[in-house]
Write a structure and sequence with these properties.
The structure is a single chain. With 361 residues, the protein is α/β, with parallel strands linked by helices. The protein has 2 domains: 173 residues, P-loop containing nucleotide triphosphate hydrolases (Rossmann fold), CATH 3.40.50.300; 174 residues, Glutathione S-transferase Yfyf (Class Pi), Chain A, domain 2, CATH 1.20.1050. The chain has 9 helices and 15 strands. The strands form 3 sheets. It has a 6-stranded antiparallel beta sheet, with helices on one face. β12, α8 and β13 form a beta-alpha-beta unit. It is globular, with a radius of gyration of 22 Å. Bound molecules: adenosine-5'-diphosphate and magnesium ion. Adenosine-5'-diphosphate binds next to α1. Magnesium ion binds next to α1.
């Protein structure tokens, strides 16, 4: 998959831009605060219909402007299409080749992009929220069924929590639980495949990047016993029987896949306890590289790789290795403040866009 053209209007500090991208490596070069990440953010919005930086879409509209628009021309397996988004005060409108799509789910993943952003390092903090987000975003990009199951689960969870607060009938709880069990089977099956994939390939990717054997392990931790995939439904039913009393007492759903976590280990020890900041960064990069293969396998197409602010944090050896490991068929967008960071790392010359005060040339 190739992002051929990016056209922006009133997106953050970018009043207008229209650029043709290279199928290989594209570098966004500029000082801090000029609009490099803004540009990346617009591409990621076209992939996920959300910003990776803010919850409020309006923050992406240029100050004092009524709307922002993003247009991405994409080529996938010889087919060309245009993804357009307009962000305005009442929400967002999405179009695929000029035809409006009513649901964001029909738009998500049409441009498949994998992002590395330094903010993602929060994933290795204590809280599992970011790790769940990784699963939900990455699986969601390749599976409509997963997104639908997640939505259904969240809706029922909200209703169950509301019912628990209202001293409801147990029959109502049971009926919501049966819908939640169905959704959770789908969610857990997809998460298990995702985590198993990571577990299988993460160590070797890391070895390619660091030239060191670090024995990385990845495990899905859930409220239900995952040892027998064929018994998920029974196990979930049992768990509700065991926990319903407590939930009634505390008036909230204490357990479920909304509390799942992924455990990362290095040499058998939790990553957070053993890895240096630099190693965590390399693990994160390895995860993103695994995600490229994951998408390729599931969708038979190659996603676009986006690396925001990654180079300044890597040493020269790691930079050289990163570009060696990168699949040459993957279109890559990189931001940097200094071209020297790239000089010795690249075999092929990149296309360079200079970013200066919202102008992209
Ligand atoms: N809604 C907005 N309207 C206009 N300018 C904005 C808006 N949001 C952010 N900016 C500006 O964008 C700049 C930051 O751009 P960014 O892409 O994050 O920089 P960098 O090049 O360092 O990645 C800042 O100067 C900020 O004031
Ligand atoms: Mg930036």
């Amino acid at each position: 998959m190739i992002l051929k053209k990016l056209k922006l209007r009133n997106f953050r500090n970018i009043e207008h831009c229209e650029i043709q991208l290279d199928p290989g490596i594209n570098v966004f070069l500029g000082n801090n605060g000029q609009g490099k990440t803004n540009c990346i953010e617009s591409v990621m919005f076209s992939s996920t219909t959300r910003s990776f930086r803010v919850l409020n879409d309006n923050a992406m509209i240029k100050y004092d402007c009524p709307f922002a628009s993003i247009e991405c021309t994409v080529e996938d397996e010889g087919k060309k299409f245009v993804l357009s988004s307009v962000i305005h005060s009442k929400g967002k409108s999405l179009f695929i080749s000029s035809k409006q799509v009513p649901k964001a789910s029909e738009f998500v993943g049409k441009l498949n992009a994998i992002l590395f952003s330094p903010n993602d390092l929060e994933m290795f903090n204590i809280s599992p929220k970011e790790r769940r987000k990784l699963m939900d975003i990455e699986i969601g990009k390749i599976s409509v069924k997963y997104n639908a199951a997640l939505l259904k689960y969240q809706k029922c969870l909200k209703e169950r929590n509301h019912a628990l607060k209202m001293d409801c009938d147990v029959l109502l709880l049971k009926s919501l639980e049966s819908q939640m069990i169905e959704a959770q089977v789908q969610i857990l099956e997809s998460r298990m495949i995702f985590v198993e994939f990571l577990n299988r390939y993460l160590s070797s990717k890391m070895k390619q990047l660091c030239d060191e054997e670090l024995h990385l392990g990845v495990k899905l931790k859930s409220w239900v016993d995952l040892s027998d995939k064929s018994k998920l439904k029974e196990k979930l039913t049992e768990r509700y029987e065991e926990t319903r009393e407590r939930d009634l007492l505390l008036r909230v759903t204490g357990n479920g896949v909304h509390r799942d976590d992924i455990e990362f280990t290095m040499k058998g020890i939790p990553l957070n306890e053993i890895a240096s900041q630099g190693q965590k960064r390399m693990v994160l990069l390895s995860i993103k590289l695994c995600m490229i293969d994951f998408v390729k396998l599931a969708k038979k197409t190659c996603p676009v790789l986006i690396l925001d602010d990654v180079l300044s944090e890597l040493d020269q050896n790691n930079r050289v290795r990163l570009f060696k490991v990168l699949d040459k068929s993957v279109q890559t967008l990189i931001t940097t403040t200094d071209l020297d960071e790239l000089k010795e790392s690249l075999v092929k010359s990149p296309k360079i866009f200079r970013v200066d005060n919202g102008m992209i040339i």
